[in-house]
Design brief:
The chain is mainly α and 134 residues long. The protein has six helices and two strands; from the N terminus they run H-E-E-H-H-H-H-H. Helix content is 59%, strand content 5%. Helix 5 (99-106) crosses helix 6 (110-133).
Length: 134
């Protein structure tokens, strides 16, 4: 049996009333949109009442979306550039490694890794800017 506090019932009712009154936009929901006020008169948003796995869940979602956007531009990179960017920023393993470690693994100099990394990031930035204009 689930027992709700008085405030939880009020919040749940506010959420239902908000969505009923906003049927034309029922498919568009913002986590930062106001859904009511607490007993002290402070604004309540969906993000305030959602129970999330981590405190920075919204940031995690943003980072995931940014990573997906970043991977969209990987197609313009050579396989070597992709490998270096993945290792350098821990995109596949969540473990970032240094240019020196990459150089050692790949049998090239650290300065060459640095040049490849810079060239790859520049290519991706140019592609991003080009797509932003279109």
């Amino acid at each position: 049996m689930i027992v709700l506090t008085f405030h939880q019932v009020i919040i749940a009712n506010e959420i239902r009333m908000y969505f009923r009154g906003n049927k034309k936009n029922n498919k568009n929901v913002s986590l930062n949109e106001s859904i009511g006020f607490d007993k002290d008169g402070n604004e309540i948003t969906l993000l305030d009442i959602l129970k999330t796995p981590t405190p920075d869940y919204a940031l995690d979602i943003h980072n995931m979306e940014s990573l997906n956007l970043l991977k969209k531009y990987f197609g313009i990179l050579t396989p070597r550039e992709q490998e270096i960017i993945n290792k350098r920023y821990g995109l596949d393993t969540d473990k970032e490694i240094t240019q020196k470690e990459i150089a050692s693994e790949m049998g090239i100099s650290r300065s060459y890794v640095s040049r490849i990394e810079k060239r790859a990031l520049t290519k991706m930035l140019k592609e991003f800017i080009k797509n932003k204009k279109n």
